[in-house]
Write a structure and sequence with these properties.
It is a single chain. Helices cover about 25% and strands about 30% of the residues. With about 250 residues, the protein is of the alpha+beta class. It has two domains: about 1-120, 2-Layer Sandwich (hypothetical protein PF0899 fold); about 160-254, Tumour Suppressor Smad4 (Sandwich). Helix 1 runs antiparallel to helix 2, helix 1 (about 1-15) packs antiparallel against helix 4 and helix 2 (about 30-45) crosses helix 4 (about 75-90). Pfam families: FHA, FhaA_N.
């Protein structure tokens, strides 16, 4: 990893003259972003029998001042960080599901000295899950990782979340999320039925996995979008805006 981080530092110094001599007001350095990308990649691993899958979409949110400082070089930095993600995944033997992309944008919610990183799958994870009963011999060549508990996971598991329809025919409808599966779409038997004719009968659903709410597209005709991106699987975070047809639903952790 240190070699790859050093390559990043060399890139920024070479192509952005005096980059590390010009301090951000927040003290932010792009190498810090790279380290958080790797941390999120590790956190989102999906382990199968023969592969360990990691997300392909990595989103970096900066406060306005830092984003303006980086914006002249954002395209080059995004390309270099994308290569960093690919190199780190290859070095660890991970399989990236889909084309890897790193996107940098600004967020009004972030104060000084703060940034946010989120990563998710935009393509279906291959059906490579271990069977219910596997002998030790069958698993002898399989790399198995144990996800260590952390405070953020404990926090998510103990706080209630809500879905609020903020745009569309059902605007104002609110639904409390727990650990049960929530189906969404035109079908009346769905936990969250929608009047929107541009949604499928079963458009998408939310399940509770590893102390997080995960949104899945149910092979809908018009697709499922989160924050403007079409997704097939997405780990929800407070403030995410889900679009199904012409309906927009806000996910919030209370």
């Amino acid at each position: 990893m240190m070699k790859i981080v050093r390559n990043l530092e060399n890139f920024f110094e070479k192509y952005i003259e005096g980059f590390f001599n010009k301090k951000f007001e927040s003290g932010l350095q792009p190498v810090e972003i790279a380290k958080y990308l790797l941390r999120d990649m590790e956190d989102q691993r999906s382990i199968g029998i023969s592969h360990i899958y990691v997300p392909n979409l990595y989103q970096v949110y900066l406060n306005k001042e830092d984003y303006e400082h980086l914006s002249p070089y954002s395209k080059a930095i995004q390309q270099e960080l994308t290569q960093y993600v690919k190199d780190e995944a290859r070095e660890r033997g991970y399989t990236i599901v889909g084309k890897p992309v790193v996107q940098i944008s600004s967020s009004d919610e972030l104060g000084n000295n703060k940034f946010k990183v989120a990563c998710n799958f935009t393509e279906p994870i291959p059906n490579d899950s271990p069977p219910e009963s596997v002998s030790p011999e069958e698993l002898s060549d399989t790399r198995v990782f144990t996800k260590l508990p952390n405070e953020s996971n404990k926090l998510h598991s103990s706080i209630a979340s809500t879905l609020t329809v903020v745009e569309g025919l059902d605007a104002g409808e609110k639904f409390n999320l727990g650990t049960n599966r929530i189906n969404m779409g035109r079908r009346e038997s769905n936990e969250l039925p929608l009047a929107d004719l541009n949604t499928s009968r079963l458009h998408s659903y939310i399940v509770f996995e590893e102390n997080h709410h995960i949104l899945y597209d149910a092979k809908s005709l018009n697709g499922t979008y989160v924050n403007g991106h079409r997704v097939t699987r997405w780990r929800l975070r407070s403030g995410d805006r889900i679009r199904l047809g012409n309906t927009i639903i806000l996910y919030e952790v209370n």
